Amino acid sequence: MELVYPGKKPREEILNGTVSCPLEGQLNGKNILIKGDNLTVLQSLLKNHQCAGTVDLIYIDPPFATNTVFTIGEERVRTVSMSGTDAVAYRDNLKCFEFIEFIRERLIVARELLSDTGSIYVQSDYKIGHYIKIIMDEVFGIDNFRNDITRIKCNPKNFDRKAYGNIKDMLLFYSKTKEIIWNDPTTALSENDKKRLFKKTDKNGRAYTTVPLHAPGETKNGLTSTAFKGMKPPKGRHWRCDPQELEALDGAGLIEWSPHGNPRKIIYADERDGKKLQDIWEFKDSPYPVYPTEKNLKLIKTIIAASSHEGSVVLDFFCGSGTTLVAAQELHRNWIGIDKSEKAIKVTREKLKNISNGLLSDAGYSYREV
Ligand SMILES: C[S@@+](CC[C@H](N)C(=O)[O-])C[C@H]1O[C@@H](n2cnc3c(N)ncnc32)[C@H](O)[C@@H]1O
Asked: What are the pocket residues of ligand 1 if the criterion is a CB atom closer than 6 Å to any ligand atom?
């Protein structure tokens, strides 16, 4: 499947063309903020700075083809202690296939920067997001599509138009390969969750539940198809672990036997500190952003914590007010931020100065302009 539109460049042309305005000299340090058009900068990182395969995580929040001029107003200017009155932060005026090609060119180059265990998250909305999904299927491969996360971004609104209110945007999550950095994120169990999920109580009053010890799929070789206490896994299934481990679980009193002699693993509520994070997230953006379309810091921290390690390089090439860079810094990741807006860079530098773990001064990162 392919999205067809006028002006779609061959992939080779995007990757092999000359870099119009390369980033000169050495890039020093682990954290880098660059002001400039991101296509040029990405191409230059790839060709002139040997950055291919060095980035573990990309998060971007590009313009969404909204045909809007975003300004920084008086209130926001004061918040970040900048001088001046209303000023254009950036213009989002590419439309239709021109916008899609703008995103596609950048995704093609960005993929080359990702490490083999790397991931990319693209923030988008309900109007353009489905086209971006098709482009990402083309660039990253449909098999590397991992999630379409619904993000609840604001309180309910009363639209005038004849449609449902829109309180969500979308995050498309892809990986470069199947083997990815993944720190399984969990959310806390509520008291209600505990009551619902752990209905049984043992003789000491501890709440628990049980889960099957076998899973679908027969294994022809290997220990998980062999007998445990003389019992083979049911037809078409295999043990979840080898019989030696099952014996150890039984010895520790962590297997409950049904009246029909079926073993199930005991899971105690007080040993479970969370449940798996699902694909609907609520991280509302501030009603008083310091930069237009500034994203929720906790949203980006969730992504960074799940899809990178300490010391990983996190890249945001539409970094705006630098939310991703602050999140990365606070989570002890290295980062590269790119934006072409003077206002964005100014706000980012202010934010980096006020960062909570105090690791950064202007000397804590390199700053370049293209
Ligand atoms: C939606 S905002 C990002 C907001 C950001 N996530 C935050 O939390 O502040 C998009 C940003 O992309 C930048 N941008 C748009 N086109 C660009 C380009 N070709 N190169 C670099 N930056 C660009 C804009 O200046 C703007 O700051």
From this structure: 37-38, 61-63, 90, 291, 293-295, 318, 320-321, 323, 338-341, 344
From its phi and psi, is residue 182 left (phi > 0), alpha (psi between -120 and 50) or beta? Answer: beta
The whole-model pTM stands at 0.87
Q: Within the chain, where are the H helices?
A: 11-16, 38-47, 74-79, 96-113, 129-140, 191-197, 243-251, 297-307, 323-330, 342-353
Across 169-181, average pLDDT: 97
Q: What pLDDT shows up at residue 201?
A: 95
Task: Write down the pLDDT at residue 73.
Answer: 65
Q: Which protein residue has the closest C-alpha to ligand 1 atom 26?
A: 320
Q: Which domains, and CATH codes, for the chain?
A: 28-185+277-369 (3.40.50.150), 187-274 (no CATH)
Which atom of ligand 1 approaches the CA of 295 most closely? Answer: 8
**Spatial separation of the C-alpha atoms in residues 249 and 255, rounded to whole Å:** 6
pLDDT digits (tens, 9 = 90+) for 194-247: 899 999 999 999 999 999 999 998 877 788 989 999 999 988 999 999 999 999
